[in-house]
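Format notes (please read before filing issues)

Several people have asked whether sequences and structure tokens are stored in separate files. They are not. Every record keeps both together, in the order shown below: the sequence lines, then the token lines. Line labels are part of the format and must not be stripped during preprocessing.
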Amino acid sequence: KVGVCFGNSWGYICPEDWDNNDAKVICRQLGLSLTWTGGKGIDAEYENLNDRLWMNEVQCTGNETRLLECGRRRLGTLRSNCDDGGFAAVACLREIPCTNGQFRLVSAAPANTTQQLVTKGRLEYCIDLSWASVCRRGNYADKLNIICRKMNIFSTAAPRLLLVPDITAATDNIVTISINCAPPTQDNCTVIVDDRAESSCSHSDDIGIDCNPSIEPTAGGGGGQRNYVLLIASVTTAGGLFLTVTLILLIIIIIACVVVKVKNKKKLDLYNQTYDRRPSGDKW
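Then the structure lines:
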């Protein structure tokens, strides 16, 4: 819970409009700007209806060095003036867990499995510097290939949508997303978070993606450690190898045909030049 000393008295901040930009300024003002990489606004767990509120509607950009440099409305009254209830609180993070807009797949490998690649698992999206599982109610079912490409997974097989509510212990957060792409290509895409739909989702609605159905984990000595990694592309499948060999042979045949055609053309040109130099009359 964030305490503010004003007029030699401690008070607190109403959480209305409180966000990560406000939290960053608090962490920086506490001298954590060099060691800690950012702040995150959280809900305070402390309740005391007699605590004084000094500030409301704090509006920081995240670049300020002190809280008093931010736009705000000073209250100095009791809790009845805070519409949102609760208090503004901050978690100063030594490391930012993720970058907003990232996707990842979370998979729990069996104890006797060494999983070098994670291409199938529960889909998570980074929002407000935290991972959130993705609800199945969003509009993205026809954009699975785009999501896989954002995680650097490229496959000739079409990705599949999975319902995997029990694949691992889910994160606390749930997010509903839609993906909009600008025509005619699907290279310029935007992820839109639907805040209104989140209340209708639970972790039983968590979805997963199988970005490359042809890849399976390899058996080996594992310690049962879960893999929380961003995905790496792989094309080492039997089908991919066959396709590669076929393409190489086709290229060799095309090159050979071009070489033969060029040689035949040179012979024809030489013959035509010799014929054009023939003397006039009936004799050579």
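For reference, the curators noted about this record: The helical segments are 20-29, 144-150, 238-276. The longest strand covers residues 120-127.
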